[in-house]
Design goal:
The protein is built from twelve helices and 15 strands. With 330 residues, it is α/β, with parallel strands linked by helices. The protein has two domains: 158 residues, D-Maltodextrin-Binding Protein, domain 2, CATH 3.40.190.170; 123 residues, D-Maltodextrin-Binding Protein, domain 2 (3-Layer(aba) Sandwich). The strands form four sheets. Strands 11-10-12-7-13-15 form a six-stranded mixed sheet. A five-stranded mixed sheet has the order 4-3-5-14-6, sandwiched between helices. Strands 1-2 form a two-stranded antiparallel ribbon. The radius of gyration is 22 Å and the shape is globular. The N and C termini lie far apart (65 Å).
Length: 330
């Protein structure tokens, strides 16, 4: 007859099977994660859904604990904080760490996250990121969310059917600053929390935003025109401290990779659907769409893509094989 102590010992020796991998009980890895935006931000909420799903499936193998956002570390200081081990995992746009890792612009391309994963682009990125940031690239999330230009007033048009933004001032991030300049406008770099006041005071005439940002930030009262197609899609990446990655059991590494790959697909579909809902809601509020079709649309997208890829090709700090990266990612 087995006593209570024997039963406990026997239970402790059992293995948990997750994602087809047997993991000894008690081998659970906990990762501390951070992000650049407040908890109410739609993209942070998306990350929390990933965490909840991963934690539910990963009991006994892997758990992720969200430790905070800008209240613990300023967004642009978070990459260094992650590299130095303040936390293990960072969710956010590569634009915040292009100074450390200029190859982060690779996400601005025509291929989806799933296509880049399948093509082997991630393997090139991982090698370079380990060398420069002591970090591991895990995945690209939320890439179904497109970025558009939104304007207060109807823009001038070019002879070829494109848009002429000369004389306008538009909020920009480093990712699409070159696009705004090439379209003739003045690029004003500011944080997203400053956009409402800048629009209200006439400091800017529009900005680059996602469809889901407009009503969430209350700026639909100012911007009345949207330019289609989306010139880019969310480049939100999940990266982690490489020494922490190396310390994880192989089973936990495999489980995290499996969960991240699945969430790339799920979050892509989610934001595609949400964007469609927002487009309908904004149209009911009177927002008009300027749809650049045919050659005008292709020129518009090419104008954007020229920026990030030219930056990488001309940056002496970029060590990755750009021809190979373009083939796999572009």
């Amino acid at each position: 007859m087995i006593g209570k102590i024997g039963l406990v010992a026997a239970a402790g020796a059992l293995a948990v099977t997750i994602a087809g991998v047997a993991v000894p009980a008690g081998a659970e890895t906990t990762l501390r994660a951070a992000g650049p935006w407040p908890k109410t931000h739609p993209l942070i909420q998306s990350f929390h859904r990933f965490i909840e799903k991963t934690n539910a499936a990963g009991k006994g193998v892997l758990q992720i604990r969200y430790v905070g956002g800008p209240e613990i570390t300023k967004p642009r200081e978070q990459p260094l904080a992650m590299r130095n081990g303040l936390f293990d995992m960072l969710y956010g746009p590569p634009a915040y760490y292009l100074g450390l890792f200029p190859e982060g612009d690779f996400a601005n391309a025509t291929k989806t996250a799933m296509e880049q994963r399948a093509s082997g682009a991630y393997e090139l990125i991982r090698k370079a990121m380990k060398e420069k940031m002591n970090a591991r690239f895990i995945a690209r999330f939320d890439s179904g969310l497109g970025l558009h230009l939104f304007l207060k007033s109807e823009p001038k048009r070019t002879a070829s059917g494109g848009i002429d933004l000369s004389g306008l001032k538009l909020r920009a991030s480093p990712t699409y600053r070159d696009l705004i300049k090439d379209l003739g406008a003045t690029a004003v770099v500011m944080g997203p929390q400053e956009v409402y006041t800048a629009l209200e005071r006439g400091v800017i005439d529009g900005m680059g935003y996602s469809l889901t940002d407009i009503r969430a930030r209350g700026v639909q009262k100012f911007v009345k025109y949207r330019i289609d197609p989306a010139f880019s899609h969310a480049t939100i990446s999940l990266v982690m401290n490489h020494p922490k990655w190396d310390s994880m059991p192989k089973q936990a590494q495999h489980f995290l990779e499996t969960q991240a790959a699945a969430w790339e697909k799920e979050s892509y579909r989610y934001w595609k659907d949400k964007a469609a809902e927002e487009q309908t809601a904004l149209a009911k509020l009177g927002m008009k769409t300027i749809d650049l079709q045919g050659e005008a649309g292709r020129e518009y997208l090419a104008t954007f893509l020229k920026g990030p890829w030219t930056r990488m090709e001309q940056n002496p700090k970029v060590t990755i094989d750009m021809k190979e990266l373009r083939k796999r990612a572009y």
